[in-house]
Amino acid sequence: MPIASPSEISREVDRAFFLVGGAGVLLLLGITATMIFFVLKYRRDRVTRTSQVEGHLLLEITWIVIPTIIVIWFFFVGYRGFGMMRAVPEDAMEVRVTGRQWSWSFYYPEEKVSAAEMVVPVNMPVKVSLTAPPDDVLHSFYIPDFRVKEDVIPGRDTYLWFASERTGVFNIFCAEFCGKDHAKMITRLRVVSEDEYRHWLRSMIMKRFKPLEYQAVTDPRHPAFGPEDLNIDAKTIYATYCASCHGVNGDGSGLPGLARSFVTAQDWKHSPKVTDIYRTLMEGIAGTQMRAYPDFTPWERVALAHYVRSFHATPPPADTEEDYNALVAAYELDKIQGPGDRISIEAAMEALLREAEADP
Fold first, then answer.
1. Ranges of H-type helices in 182-317
2. CATH number (domain holding residue 187)
């Protein structure tokens, strides 16, 4: 239990827990003490014969009415918190969360950006819209510090909401057993200041809407992947979304016999070109457990493709400019529209450049 509860909901849940738990402890102690008293008072060596009790109306009414009042009180104590959890404020921002074996992904519909962790501003109510792909399994989205948990049901929409009153980093778990790597289905909620949130959002907009370049497809060390630009960590992306099936070393050891190895050419369903891996990440592979990852940005897909290619025992084939042009045409990468005028891609890039120059 945290030293200071970060939200009104968590305080209400804690209050209900201690009230109901405290009442339960008092009842347990009272009933136990009464039992011990009667055992001692009416033991065999003190009373040899007892009278037959035919009935006691007042006693019977008492042990019906008092427990009923206690149970009704328990109900209203819990219902107050439940009602608070289901009443989403009208000004809440929305984050759409998809649970799949064995990761969470977060989509911000207003800005049209995706992330592998949830980042929200402090003192802002957040509605978390939950779903899972129809071919997935049941998950449960759980933020222990905020005392909120909701099932994530394949093909259906559920929701919860919270508002943090302080900044910090909080764990997000899956609270429903969902298969082999259920215990690894962990990510973070970062609650940050308004300024830090705007800075993070601008960087995510850059990742989403910065035009893809042919040089990035051919060069895994392209400067746009680096910390001074988009700051894409392909190794972390692979560990989060791919290693559970394909293994940490890309040898298919996560799901032997089901997940392909990236080490040898014969195990590839398609060629190990960057453009073909990009298509696999966009569409998945029919008839296999390889699903699509449409929430990745174009730059993240390319960076991940380079990382996957690095497992190949021999140098994989290079992508030609024709391969790149076909990819751009197939997914209309030259027609990606940035978010509205509120945060344009040009303004975001200029702001990030100014901030980078200002940092010592």
1. 194-209, 214-218, 234-241, 243-246, 274-283, 298-309
2. 2.60.40.420
3-state secondary structure of 188: strand
Count: domains in the chain: 3
Residues 6+ apart with CB under 8 A from 266: none
- The amino acid present at 167, given as its one-letter code, is T
216 and 331 within one domain: yes
Q: Are residues 179 and 234 in the same domain?
A: no
Q: What is the pTM of this model?
A: 0.73
H or E segment and range at residue 11: helix 8-41
pLDDT tens digits, residue range 108-163?
998 888 888 999 999 999 999 999 988 889 999 999 999 999 999 998 999 999 99
Strand partners, 104: 99
Model confidence pLDDT, tens digit, residues 157-209: 999 999 999 999 999 999 999 988 899 899 999 999 999 999 888 888 888 88
CB atoms within 10 A of CB 345: 18
**111 and 176 part of one domain:** yes
Q: Say if CB 280 and CB 262 are below 8 A apart.
A: no
Residue 357 within any structural domain of the chain: no
> Rounded mean pLDDT of the chain?
85
**C-alpha angle 123/126/131, rounded to 5°?**
160
Q: Do 100 and 75 have their domain in common?
A: no
Query: What is the token pair recorded at 20?
Result: 């109901």
Encode pLDDT of 293-313 as tens digits.
888 889 999 999 999 998 888
Q: What range does the domain containing 221 cover?
A: 212-335
* H or E stretch covering 354: helix 345-358
What is the CATH number for 216? Answer: 1.10.760.10
